[in-house]
Amino acid sequence: MKKFARIIGTGSYLPPKVVTNHDLEKTLDTNDEWIVARTGISERRIVEEEGTCDLAVEASNNALEMAGIDANELDLIILATTTPDKIFPATATMLQNQIGATCPAFDLQAVCAGFVFAMTTAQQYIENGGAKKVLVVGSETISRLVDQNDRSTAILFGDGAGAIVLSADDETGILHSKICSDGRYLSSLQVSNNRINELGFIQMSGNEVFKIAVNRLSNLAETTLQECDMTTEDLTWMVPHQANIRIITAVAKRIKLPMEKVVLTLDKHGNTSAASIPLALDVAVRDGRIKKGDKLMLEGIGGGFSWGGLLVEY
Ligand code: ACO
After folding, report:
1. Mean pLDDT in the chain?
2. How many H helices and E strands in the chain?
3. Which residues does a 6 A CB cutoff place in the pocket of ligand 1?
């Protein structure tokens, strides 16, 4: 019998230090009004001493608690991150040790699309019978890759982690997934270093990223709905990667989805890269917006470019 990968637990964690737009005004030639109007972001969380694994541990324990399972019942852990604590070992193996799991664990890197890529990978394991319970985590200390003197990027990014427990289910779960990459756009969005032992910061051509993101994400949403024989009206919620309110609004407009059906957390979280979708999902599950049986579209795009989407029955 076909198995589905069903979400049975969500969790998230934000580091305590809040950096508001007004805080940034003190060190950068910018202002709250500009940042809110151009991005939708009012504040973000920034790590002090915490590492990517520390954030992932908190989010994972919250998700495991909601799922009602113990870490030693997991068959696989996939951690999506652009900011591993070390080049090796994988941050996922540190997470495995700290939460008391014994299963295989690996990191996956697809920048802001990392969570969708990780969920799609986990889905394959579950549908093929290779795993019954999988922990999928997006965790980032992306502020470490941001030049805090560069106003074009320092206003956008924040740190955090989100986690999901997927379980093999006979009835429903992930209904559709698609991942895509187009490696021609290296210079549009990348870190500045060429070697792993050189310090690098995010460099971005904001306008180009903006146009490509809207285009690719709207096309993906339309194709996904067609392939599922659904229309926008069948969607209960869109949980997008939280990059910029204007990207999200433009995609919603293109697919004729009312903004009331979009889960937004970027005003408080900023762009947390691979963590943004599971963070937003957890917020909306815990505040009661997302309910059992809801049809969710999750989608995101990041450097590469890599992008992807999931259609999920919660
Ligand atoms: N504060 C105040 N003014 C600023 C700032 C700032 N932080 N940054 C730029 N400006 C000024 C510019 O100098 C320019 O001034 P001018 O008109 O006098 O020359 C003006 O604002 C407009 O600058 P643009 O760069 O054209 O601003 P834009 O409207 O494109 O907004 C932004 C910039 C917010 C980066 C936008 O391009 C964007 O969101 N792009 C998408 C990028 C993104 O989301 N990246 C995240 C990583 S990728 C991902 O997650 C999908």
Report:
1. 97
2. 10, 13
3. 30, 34, 38-39, 112, 151-152, 155-156, 189, 204, 206-207, 209-210, 213, 243-244, 271, 301-302
